[in-house]
């Protein structure tokens, strides 16, 4: 019997990679879904004696995301004490003024990854764990951008706002059945996404200078520290009481 079965998207780099390493605890069974597998993670899991399954998938491909969701959750063991789904995969692109947002493929890919894949995986998670005498937790990695507008981030802000509302609906439907879902902003983390943000043009993203200054002044949080705090939050007795949350509210 696994104490925790954890399912994590976007595990190949940045915050996701740090979360994956933090989830390699005794008694855990970790399933990752990302565009690339991680040989170092596999070696670490083997050294710790933790069961690890790595699935290579582009979750921006809706058909592929649906197929993987079905396959993963159809095979999910039903004897764990806790089931934890962390929807971490996401993209900030396309970054552009609303007058220039005219690429339907780019817009569609962002919504597919940031929103649709979350819905597909969460649906399967809810169905697969329904009725189990276990703790059932969902962490959707959101952003302050979903709660405050940022020029140039119309798509990113909209997808994260959608993620926040989706989390609230999940709770409205399933909290009484023991599900705990949180849409969690991780703060400004020193990841590849931040590199992408800093490579934007000031014309497309007027707040560029502020993000460059955050990096230059060392004010970005490390992925490892944020991952540690997120995983600590999932262990708290009051996890789920605040459904739209920010990890910066916790030490």
From TrEMBL:
<dbReference type="GO" id="GO:0005737">
    <property type="term" value="C:cytoplasm"/>
</dbReference>
<keyword id="KW-0560">Oxidoreductase</keyword>
<protein>
    <submittedName>
        <fullName>Short-chain dehydrogenase</fullName>
    </submittedName>
</protein>
<dbReference type="InterPro" id="IPR051721">
    <property type="entry name" value="Biopterin_syn/organic_redct"/>
</dbReference>
<keyword id="KW-0963">Cytoplasm</keyword>
<dbReference type="GO" id="GO:0006729">
    <property type="term" value="P:tetrahydrobiopterin biosynthetic process"/>
</dbReference>
<dbReference type="InterPro" id="IPR036291">
    <property type="entry name" value="NAD(P)-bd_dom_sf"/>
</dbReference>
<keyword id="KW-0521">NADP</keyword>
<dbReference type="GO" id="GO:0004757">
    <property type="term" value="F:sepiapterin reductase (NADP+) activity"/>
</dbReference>
<dbReference type="InterPro" id="IPR002347">
    <property type="entry name" value="SDR_fam"/>
</dbReference>
<dbReference type="Pfam" id="PF00106">
    <property type="entry name" value="adh_short"/>
</dbReference>
């Amino acid at each position: 019997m696994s104490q925790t079965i954890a399912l994590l998207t976007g595990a190949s780099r940045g915050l996701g990679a740090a979360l994956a390493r933090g989830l390699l605890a005794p008694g855990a069974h970790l399933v990752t879904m990302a565009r690339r597998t991680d040989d170092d993670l596999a070696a670490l899991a083997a050294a710790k004696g933790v069961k690890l399954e790595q699935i290579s998938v582009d979750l921006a491909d809706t058909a592929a995301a649906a197929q993987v969701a079905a396959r993963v959750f159809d095979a999910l063991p039903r004897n764990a004490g806790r089931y934890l789904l962390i929807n971490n995969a996401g993209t900030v692109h396309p970054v552009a003024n609303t007058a220039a947002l005219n690429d339907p493929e780019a817009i569609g890919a962002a919504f597919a990854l940031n929103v649709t894949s979350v819905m597909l995986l969460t649906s399967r998670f809810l169905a697969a764990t329904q009725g189990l005498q276990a703790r059932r937790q969902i962490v959707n990695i959101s952003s302050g951008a979903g709660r405050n507008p940022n020029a140039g981030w119309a798509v990113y802000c909209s997808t994260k706002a959608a993620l926040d509302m989706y989390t609230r609906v999940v709770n409205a439907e399933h909290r009484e059945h023991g599900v705990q879902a949180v849409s969690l902003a991780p703060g400004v983390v020193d990841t590849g996404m931040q590199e992408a943000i800093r490579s934007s043009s000031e014309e497309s993203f007027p707040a560029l200078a502020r993000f460059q200054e955050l990096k230059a002044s060392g004010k970005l949080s490390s992925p490892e520290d944020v991952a540690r705090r997120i995983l600590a939050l999932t262990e708290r007795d009051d996890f789920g009481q605040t459904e739209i949350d920010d990890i910066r509210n916790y030490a």
